[in-house]
Structure prediction request, 474 residues.
Amino acid sequence: MSHIGIDLGTTYSAVATLDESGRPVILKNKNEQESPKGNLTASAVLFKSDQVIVGEQARKRIGLSANVAARFKRLMGTSKGIEADGRSHTPTELSALVLKRMKKIAEDNLGQIEKAVVTIPANFSNEARVATMKAASMAGLNIEQIINEPTAAALHYAYQHKGEVSGTYAVYDLGGGTFDISVISINGGQVDVITSNGIPKLGGVDFDSALIELIAAKYKEETGENLDQELYTLTDAEEDKIKLSAKKRVIAGGLREDLEDETIFIERSEVEEAISGFIAQTEMTCETTIGEAGLNVEDIKGVILVGGSTRIPIVRESVKRVFKQEPITTENPDEAVALGAALYAAVDSPVSLGEVANHYFGTLVVDDRQGVEKLTNDILIEKNKKLPCRVTRSYFTASYGQRYVECEVTQSSNLETDPQWVNIIWKGELGPLPSGRPVGQEIEVTFRYDKNQIMHCSFKDVTSGKQTDVDIDT
Prediction:
């Protein structure tokens, strides 16, 4: 039985394992020889008659068929439905279908699978992490842990250098749907995360959409008509974007038949201008993260590029500008995450990691220390706290004879005390409590954040022993 690592991507996914020599390798999808991404499998689902097809055949139909679902990873942890095949599917259900396909690829290569590690963006919310675990379970995978994508890539980098690297590095991860920037410490085979930030909805698919808008404007100028979305799809835009990483000018691929003898050219410089706002967001996030780590850019020994979108020339120029050095590139930046996950999944892994909390978690309490009652968000687990961790804090009932206590769990990207700026990820109550008790009865609150970065909370009335427990779920 084998152990595998899976990179569940917005646009493409990959599965890896260790070969007989202990080297991480990508497992080939034997049915995807025609894929432009080689060893990768498109994270797209086609519902065809009584079949469910995941991969290149589905990707080619994005924007052309109502039976295709794609790019649903960015909706993980939400209740938003994706319409396909005449019905609504949750992001978790669709992700489970992709993971099931990755499991089948692994089984075709290895036989029975004993254990899998699945990666997720560092900036994923608690709800999205739980949804990923649920999708893996639905796919029939035995998941012991999920790890952050930048951390997995760092593990692979440490392995490649045989544990001889040390120092502070940045992992710049720009994929199809999300952007992460992590500052990490590498010491031989040990990788410790110092801090991470990211933008949940920024990646290659946004660049594709910007390219479509550019083509639509050119098409309007050329023909006087509005561009039908079926003439130039997201798939067409993706393929032209890839070509523009190697060339400065290409012909818009999906429009040749429609325009007959006419052609529409796309200049790389035009696309760079169209996505400049996204690039500026990544730069600001990088600068914030360096400061949050208490470092100067000169303290960063190297910048490791991860994700297919880092092949885009303007992205690499941006990284060089922000970090004042040439970034570290690999032959296949979109495979590094799966390879690192495979290393971590191994029983005798030559590398280990130390993750941190990527959000602040707290609870809402009444603060009357200034003589005026005010609802405030009290932080129990701070961002960048080493995992796993456990924090217990005592609060007290606010009124005579109080029978119920409102219980909330909050999440925020910044250190926020104002309730209006935090996300309440769970709400419940503790009670009924004994009647007739005076003010000031102790309520003990415990937050436990596990190695999968999933929150487990308890609210306990100390005197009566009554307790409310919750594992934050979607």
Q: What stands out?
A: The mean pLDDT is 91. Residues 91-110 form the longest helix (20 residues). The domain at 204-275 is CATH 3.90.640.10 (Actin; Chain A, domain 4). The chain has three domains: 2-202+277-354, 204-275, 360-473.
